[in-house]
Amino acid sequence: MAYSIPPPSPMVCAGNLETNWTAFKEAWLDYRIAVGLDQKEQAVQVATLKTIMGMECRKRLKSLTLTDAESKSHDSIIKKLDEHFKPARNVLYDRHKFFLSSQQQEETVDQYYMRLTQLAEYCKFGDIEQEMIRDKLVIGCTDAAAKARLFRLKESDATLKTALESLRISEATNSQLKSMSGKQQSLVADTETVNTKRYNPRQAQYQHNRETSAGPNRECGNCGLVHKSKQCPAFGQTCNNCGKRNHWRKKCRSKPSVNRAANKQAHEIHANAGDVDSDNPDSYGFDLETIETVNQHNTEGVKYAVARVKTQQHKSLRLKAKVDTGAKANILNFDTYRALFGPQHTLKPSPVRLSGYGNKPITNLGSATAISVQHGEKTC
């Protein structure tokens, strides 16, 4: 019988000695009864205790003052070791630690409950120990919803057992909801990935350019220009003949539409260098603020809008600008601005970010507004 039950581990004489001694003492007393040592002679009990307690604890025992009779008594040795490892306690300080203890972020309800039980052991609460543990368990827990439910209970129903069970159920429920929420977020992310694969603008542009420009020396079938692969300027543009996208009119495969070309409305234009007629022999461009309905003019297959621009420096200038219905801004070079507004004019700061085809950035130096822009009988 004595050899079928393993002895307790030796006393750990490091760290929290009081806690370690309490654990060793409890294990030793259980072992002593289990193997029948309590029925043996005192000499056998003392010898077994000294053997199991370990060398470090045995050295401490030798340093204690014991009479010859005490050194031969099991209970006297246990008492002396209690006094050594359990010094006189300050109950006020122990209760201070108990009342300040709160549930930690990663601490479970059961772990928090066990910690409170250990702290309450030294507080000498007496008959109200269970109530004190219940109160601190509810007040110190991190689950605000469960705490509110417990506050609504009657005093007779708010026992330590009820509070502990309620907090455990709430903890398990919150954990399950968190797990379900994580799975739903993962499902949404997978769905978004699938939807992204269904349409990818870059893949569409690549497919468009691959089909229309096989090499650098071959004319593109959508714009009529020779350009590098994946850099077709007609991609994303609307044909002025058929109204379809990703090609220009001169490469349109549909039949020409007379009505569409006769009176095309444009609200935005891009002027080309050399399209401003003035006394200055150089070529300039101009940033138009707005321009209303204009008629298209064909010059060697290229469409232009002709308007007269009035500024503070010039009464009337003839501006020939290329129509681009897909653009969202009217942009000209800096030299044109100087020709129209003069060297003393100052540009207004503009927060607008400009980009060309393929999102290539365009430097924005500022903005300027003309007094009026006239085409035919229309003035804006």
UniProtKB/TrEMBL annotation:
Residues 219-234, 238-254 form the CCHC-type domain. InterPro entries: Znf_CCHC (IPR001878). It comes from the Eukaryota. GO terms for molecular function: nucleic acid binding; zinc ion binding. PANTHER family: ANK_REP_REGION DOMAIN-CONTAINING PROTEIN-RELATED, CCHC-TYPE DOMAIN-CONTAINING PROTEIN. This is CCHC-type domain-containing protein. It comes from Stichopus japonicus (Sea cucumber).
